[in-house]
Design a protein that fits this description.
Helices cover 60% and strands 3% of the residues. This is DUF2200 domain-containing protein. InterPro entries: SP1917_dom_sf, UCP033199.
Length: 121
């Protein structure tokens, strides 16, 4: 399944603050921690805890969030399916970045080892 233009626009306008609590709930339900979630976000974006909190407080959109991020060079190693989309088939860069984050959170919640999640190849 390839995301539609409308889907891509919706992803761009969605705020990080609206999704972040769902990330926390998802990982904590599976006995992972908020600190581990932040480690994953930091690895992908380069943001430290203070910057993550600022992004939440300022209610930035995913478009603004990823515009400020310095994506990890190994982010392209994130593959697979998330929310019905094959990450490697997504051609919109922003939608792909959001799905990178979703996939990392999903892997954390599924109990994958941190070194595997962080693609330290």
């Amino acid at each position: 399944m390839i995301p539609t233009r409308e889907h891509n626009e919706r992803m761009a306008k969605m705020t990080f603050a609206s999704v972040y609590p769902h990330y926390v709930t998802k990982v904590e339900k599976k006995a992972r921690t908020k600190e581990e979630l932040h480690e994953v976000i930091t690895w992908l974006t380069g943001f430290d805890d203070n910057k993550i909190q600022t992004m939440i407080d300022e209610k930035v959109t995913f478009e603004e969030f990823f515009a400020q991020a310095k994506l990890h060079p190994n982010a392209e190693l994130i593959t697979g399916t998330i929310c019905g989309y094959k990450i490697q088939e997504i051609d919109n860069p922003l939608t792909k970045q959001v799905r990178f984050l979703d996939k990392l959170v999903d892997e954390l919640a599924k109990g994958k080892k941190m070194e595997k999640i962080l693609r330290n190849a």
